[in-house]
Amino acid sequence: MDDDNEIDSNYLIGLQELIQMHPHVWAWGPGKITVEYETKIPDWLVLYSWLFQEKNQDEVLFDNTKFWNIKYPSGTGLAIKKEVAQKYLENVKQNKMTATCRNGGGLTSGGDSQIVYCAIQLGKYAGTAPQLIINHLTEQKKDLFSLLQTVSFWGFFLCGISC
């Protein structure tokens, strides 16, 4: 869990229930993410909250197609089975997956989407659920228009490569 995420008090209980109800889903993420900005933001920026992973879905969604889709979790609140982590490590060691995870002050990464893809590689599913709720705290340095451009480009670019 990232230090800029606040999970709902029932997050782990909801996750445990989902794992029991859907044992074929090996990567879960929140279906409800609220973005909370540290500072006052321009009104127009609210229209782009989805770039900061905001979502408000009402149903459990999962899939296992090899094309990235809205049903797949972002890195925020991502929970995976041990076998998915092992597959990711194996792929990295064999240079099959080379996108880096976030490092230091960097705000872009591709590791999360590649981790989700490992569940798909294993023939399992990835999904999101409304009972998994997170508040995503967004620091002032993340409020910049230039960051929006960067996140938008890398998010779409890496998704196209890794999926």
Could you please describe the fold and organization of this structure?
The protein is built from four helices and six strands. It has helices at 11-21, 82-93, 111-121, 145-162; strands spanning 5-7, 25-37, 55-56, 61-63, 79-80, 125-138. Helix 2 crosses helix 3. Strands 1, 2, 3, 4, 5 and 6 form a six-stranded mixed β-sheet that branches. It is an alpha+beta fold.
Q: What does the radius of gyration come to?
A: 15 Å
Shape: globular
Mean pLDDT: 80
| Share in helix | 25-40%
End-to-end Cα distance, whole Å, is 23 Å
Number of strands: 6
User: In this structure, how is the largest beta sheet organized?
Assistant: 6 strands, mixed
Low-confidence stretches: 152-163
Q: Which strand-content bin applies to the residues?
A: 15-25%
Count of helical regions: 4
Question: SSE string, helix = H, strand = E?
Answer: EHEEEEHHEH
